[in-house]
Structures are given as structure tokens and as C-alpha cells.
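Lab notebook, bench 4. The sequencing result for the construct came back, and we need a structural model before the next group meeting so we can plan mutations. Quick request posted to the team channel:

Model the 3D structure of this chain.
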Amino acid sequence: MPERRDENARLTDWAHRERVKELQCLYAVSQIIVEPSLTRAERMRRIVSTLPRAWQHPDSAVARITLDNDVFASAGGEPLLAACGAELVVEAEPRGMVEVGYPSVLPGDADPFLAEERTLLENVARQVSLYITREEGAERRKLLEEQLRHADRLATIGQLAAGVAHEMNEPLSSILGFAQLALKSVDVPQQVAADLREIVGSSLRAREIVKKLLLFARQTPPSMRACNLNQVVDEALFLLAAGGQRQGIEFARRLTAELPELEADPTQLRQVVVNLLVNATQAISARGRIEVATRLDGNHVELAVADTGCGMTPEVLKQVFNPFYTTKDVGEGTGLGLSVAHGIIIAHGGTIHVESVLGKGSRFVVRLPCRSIGTGSGRSGP
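Done. Here's the predicted structure in C-alpha cell form:
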């Protein structure tokens, strides 16, 4: 009888120690999650180093967190012969697993895990899932706030640009008109005629800038009608491919046949494609390649323009659609091409996205909504 009491006391003491270890582990994980100075990777590494101490055999236990494509483990990458795990679920989507196990067979029961250990693992997985949900929610809110501030700045600049363009139109027209009239006069000295031709050329360039300003400010409403994106791309390539090939640039087309027609302004869409192609051409200093592709993706048509040019730094990438922002030398660009393209795409209810690697090239992807889905079902493309 005394022996049974001693055994019960021993088991009670053992169970008490195990519960204390589990509570200490849960508290430590909570502290790691709320620590503001840690990155996600540092948090995961600390958690997996903490978990084994709560298990019956802490010296043999190995903890592992799999999150998306990342794996964090408290020991080497050897397979676990016995393991228990709990799923990481973020906004109803499985994203990974929290596991604790043993890389070798342990003597004793067939199941080396206590019910309390499994419950502990589920609580840890729940805490990690909530942390990821909060972190990604905060990132989305921050991105949305940046987008709203950017849209507000663009709207303000658009109003300013529209006012400036309207004010410039009248004096530009007078300068251009009088210069052209003076050129038609008889007996104009040669040097004066050369100066007048320079005035006419500069005025015409300024007028083009005014048109781009008005387009950026959406003072020129799109003339919507049925058009085919592949045809718009072909027309833009016809205008630019010959000049690019003389510079040693190879143009590749991957256009999905039988795309559904869009309800859009073909002139403005052509301007978008031309601007993207000009941007890609200018990004290639010597020989290179530009690939233009289209495809149908659900109820959207996609256009992708990729180049093997110089690419962009993250700082440049953040400002690439800002009006008047340019990395080109003075006189080589107005900084309006991509901002105009952005404004046209937004006016058509679409989106434009860019990804770039410095020294390797850039890829712009335009998505436009289909008003009616045709028979085209090809999936080749970007």
C-alpha cells in the first residue's frame, strides 16, 4: 500500500512538472510573438528553439515550423520518425504546419506524445496563425494607405498639370503660328530661317508635352469602341520595331490568338503600348531582347512587355509611375510616358504592375477587363 501511494505521488509530481513546462512554453511563445523588434524569421526561429523544452524528452525532441516556402527547425533537417503537428491557418487558408517529433524511435508506448502536448501544439499553432494574420493585415493597411496617398498626390498633380497645359496652349499656338508664317516670307536670311525652324520644332515638341499633360490629367476623355489588343500591339510594334532592330534589339511576340474584343480607346491603348516599348528600348543600352505577350486570364486580357535592360532599383521602382520622374538625362525624356500609360489604364478600369531586377530587366503587366468573353481560350502568354 505505501508503495502504491509512493507511485501515485511520483506520477502526480511528474504530471505537475510536465504541466509547468507546457505553461512555461506557452508563455515564452506568447512573449516571442509580442516582441516588437523581431522579424518574422527571427520569431519563428525562437519559437522552434523554445518548443522542445516542453516535451517529455526535450533532449531528443525536434521542433519544426513550415510556413509557405520557408522551413524553420530547432535541429538538422533529418526526417522525424514520430511527430505530431498542428496546421497553420491564416484567414481560412492553410499556410503551413507546426510540428514536434523525434528523429529516432523512443522506448515505451507506441504513441510518445501526451494529449496535453498535442493541445499545447494546437495552441502554439493558433497563436502563430493569429500573429501572421495581424502582421499581414497591418502590411495590407500600410500598402493601402500608401496607395491612397499616391492617388491623392496624382489627383493634385493632375489638376495642376491640366491648368498649366491650358495656360500654355494659347501662347504656344501663337509662337508656332507666327514662326511658320515668318518662314513663308520671301527673302528670309538663311540664319533667320534656321532659327525659325528651330522655334517651330521646339514648339511642336512643347505641344506634344501639353497633349501628354492633358492626357495624364484625363482632360482628353477616351473614345470607347470595340478594339482588339493584338491589333493594337501589332500597330505599335510596326512603328517601333525597325528602329529598335537597328540598335541590336530583338523583338519577340507571343500573342494569344482570338482574344475577346475590348471596349476601349484604341488610340490611347496604342499610346500605352508605345510608351512601354519606348521605355523598354531605352532601358537596353546595347544588344537585348524585348518580349511582348498577350493572353486571356478569366475575364481579363493581359499584356506583358518584358525587356533585358538595366532594370530598376527598389527606390526607382516606387516612383516609376510618378509624373515628371525620370532617370534619363536632361532633354532625353519628360518623365510623363509611364504616368500617362498608368492614367490611361486606370481610366479603362484596368491595372498596371511592374517587377524589375537591377541589371537583368523589367516586366510590365497590364490587365484590362473584358466587356464580353469571346471564344479565345488560349493560355499561352505571360
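Residues 329-334, 372-382 have pLDDT under 50 and may be disordered.
Will bring this to the meeting.
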